[in-house]
TrEMBL record:
Keywords: DNA-binding, Transcription, Transcription regulation. Gene3D superfamilies: 3.40.190.290, Winged helix-like DNA-binding domain superfamily/Winged helix DNA-binding domain (1.10.10.10). It comes from Cupriavidus plantarum. Belongs to the LysR transcriptional regulatory family. Coiled coil: none annotated. It comes from the Bacteria. The keyword DNA-binding applies. This is LysR family transcriptional regulator. Pfam families: HTH_1, LysR_substrate.
Length: 304
């Protein structure tokens, strides 16, 4: 009969690999032993931990909650019996789940988290890039980055910077179609637009005083902000582009900001995490690194 600690280890291996067979290989035991341990743990918990069929397993909502609690507890138990040097290193071991907007994550976050991970070899990064904000609790995210101030009391949020949004076009485009002097002029000009992936509708362009403009017939639409930026850089159309994507091209003269008197207020950029008691060191070290790095918008604008 397995003790409860071993059952939890087997359960965590199955949760992390998504397979009873892979968990058995990882632990050096038989798949039947994994199945028996999961069944016994389900009996003790009084809940299903995995949905099963002949082809795959899928962890249940209750199983995800148990995995979130058990993973950290098992690491703490292991630390009690590790040599001093290993204890110090092990404090940073484990997965950190992050979410961020696509372009900002690639440009501003990947270099930062990669640097931290290289300094702590036991650290593993799981970065979800999406322009749809993730629900931190439901998605089991440890750290999130988003535009707009987060006012939810369940989260610890740090406002780290402000980012402008520019309406821009290339010099060649302006020479070809003319320079807009008012927001209403955009209706007669070629424009780009970003899609809201949750609704399929285009995101409106935002301007000073709450004014909005939604391109009715954009010549280019995408769900990726870097693709939209590249379309604007090609001279195809005007677009409203975030500063961290546009600033270096504006400085180089490749893009020209227009309608500046109508520019919206810059958006806050926040780094946040769930407010759930003690913060593991692996989460803290990445949270602090992101706060420092993202507080310097110039560093992001300088990246290719």
């Amino acid at each position: 009969m397995l003790n409860r600690l071993e059952m939890l280890r087997i359960f965590m291996a199955a949760a992390e690999t998504g397979s009873f067979k892979q968990a058995a290989i990882h632990l050096g035991i038989s798949p039947q032993a994994v199945t028996r341990a999961i069944q016994e743990l389900e009996r003790l918990q009084g809940e299903m931990l995995f949905h099963r069929n002949t082809r795959q397993i899928r962890i249940t909502d209750f199983g995800e909650q148990l995995a979130s609690r058990a993973g950290e507890s098992l690491r703490q138990v292991d630390l009690l019996f590790a040599p001093q040097g290993q204890r110090q290193n092990a404090e940073f071991e484990g997965v950190v789940h992050l979410t961020a907007p696509k372009a900002l994550g690639r440009i501003g976050m990947v270099p930062v988290v990669a640097d931290v991970a290289m300094r702590h070899p036991g650290l593993r990064i799981d970065l979800d890039l999406s322009d749809t904000p993730a629900h931190v609790i439901d998605e089991r995210i440890d750290i999130g980055v988003r535009f707009g101030l987060l006012r939810d009391s369940r989260f610890v949020a740090r406002k780290v910077a402000k980012h402008a949004f520019h309406v821009v076009g290339t010099p060649a485009l302006i020479e070809r179609v003319g320079l807009p002097t008012h927001v209403r002029d955009l209706a007669a000009l070629p424009t780009t637009v970003m899609h809201d992936v949750t609704t399929g509708r285009p995101w409106p362009w935002l301007f000073k005083g709450g004014q909005r403009f939604t391109p009715a017939q954009p010549v280019f639409s995408s769900n990726d902000s870097e693709a939209e930026r590249d379309a604007v850089l090609s001279g195809l159309a005007f677009g409203q582009i975030a500063g961290f994507l546009a600033d270096r091209h504006i400085a180089a003269g490749e893009l020209v900001p227009v309608l500046q008197p109508f520019a919206p207020e810059p958006w806050d950029l926040c780094v946040y995490r769930p407010q759930t008691g003690p913060v593991p060191k692996r989460v803290r070290v990445i949270f602090d690194a992101l706060v420092r790095a993202l507080a310097d918008p110039g560093a992001q604008a300088a990246r290719p």
